[in-house]
Design a protein that fits this description.
mainly beta, Immunoglobulin-like, 2 domains, 22 strands, disordered N terminus
């Protein structure tokens, strides 16, 4: 009697285990290590007022049959361009190769450029084979004027039995490449000299000042600078993303020259300027103090008083200072 009861209970337990193993409840996600849905490429560069394309892709899926995703973007910066299906009201994105053709059904394909949203739902239909591997779900063509994140939400992948697949989600970004400003170039000559090397030229973001009380005030750190070659030529590369409003040229013993930016005809060409000689005390004016400084070093080789750089302080230097007596900078370039 006890043996019969034990055998009956054992058979019942085996039957319950078999039933529990065979019955997989609907709605329990299948584990698929590596399955993903995402924005490709994850970073898309688009020049201002140009267009570019992202794809929404899946990868490493097994027996996928349906897909849903919602994408949010910044409508002030980017917009979905064009309409992939003009026969349907509203704006639609292009359906990818995985879900196009007669064996697929698109339940929702809505773009709202005002709100910055894309809603997409689609499934394959019999006799289409389920997707194993990966591919393109949709293609999105964008126009951009500033950067935006591309954030997926509410992503759902379903297999042929209606069971969910849990994918990793990969968001994206649209960035705007920094357009380098054109180089600024030109020539700075020095009155009284035949070689013009090492004159300092630099750009500043502030407007050109009308008066310079001290040359030392021009010593601004971390600005684009260049030095002239022997023929006076220079080139400066502006820092990307900055707006510069003034070009200045400085050399000890000479008045400062300045040019307001931008230069548009042709872009970046500052042309030629000659710096007047004689500002020995660097107050951007040529006056009695400069004459006195040169005279006090007359007959020496002091470089601080040698206006024309010929190695001697003499009448030629005095003549240069005297000829520009009363002039003040900045010189208009």
């Amino acid at each position: 009697m006890n043996r019969k009861l034990t055998r009956t209970a054992g058979l019942a337990l085996v039957a319950l285990v078999l039933l529990a193993t065979a019955a997989q409840p609907v709605g329990i996600a299948r584990a698929e290590p590596g399955a993903w849905i995402g924005v490709v490429p994850d970073t898309l560069q688009i020049a201002v007022d140009s267009s570019g394309v992202n794809e929404i892709k899946v990868g490493d899926v097994i027996n996928m049959y349906g897909v849903e995703f919602h994408l949010a973007f910044n409508p002030a910066c980017v917009q979905v361009k064009g309409d992939a299906d003009p026969s349907t009201p509203g704006i639609q994105i292009e359906v990818g190769s995985l879900l196009s053709g007669s064996d697929a059904f698109v339940a929702k394909n809505d773009v709202d450029n005002a709100k910055g949203t894309i809603d997409f739902v689609a499934t394959l239909k019999h006799p289409a084979m389920p997707v194993t591997g990966g591919g393109t779900v949709a293609r999105i063509t964008w126009t951009a004027k500033c950067a935006s994140t591309l954030k997926l939400s509410g992503t759902k992948l379903g297999d042929v039995n209606g069971l969910p697949i849990n994918p990793a989600v990969k968001n994206g970004n649209i960035t705007i490449p920094l357009t380098p400003a054109p180089k600024v170039y030109g020539t700075v000559l020095l009155q009284g000299r035949t070689t013009y090397a090492n004159t300092e030229v630099f750009l500043t973001e502030e407007p050109c000042p009308s008066v310079i009380h001290s040359i030392s005030a021009l010593a601004i750190p971390n600005v684009p600078t260049a030095k002239t070659a022997a023929n006076g030529y220079f080139e400066i590369l502006p820092y990307p993303g900055r707006t510069y409003m003034c070009l200045s040229a400085f050399r000890h013993g000479y008045l400062v020259a300045q040019k307001s930016l931008p230069i548009t005809h042709p872009p970046g060409d500052a042309g030629v300027v000659t710096l007047p000689a004689g500002d020995m005390n660097q107050d951007d004016c040529i006056n009695i103090f400069d004459l006195a400084l040169v005279a006090s070093h007359y007959g020496t080789s002091d470089v601080m008083a040698d206006v024309n750089g010929d190695g001697a302080v003499d009448v030629y230097d005095l003549s240069l200072v005297g000829g520009n007596y009363g002039k003040c900078g900045p010189v208009n370039w």
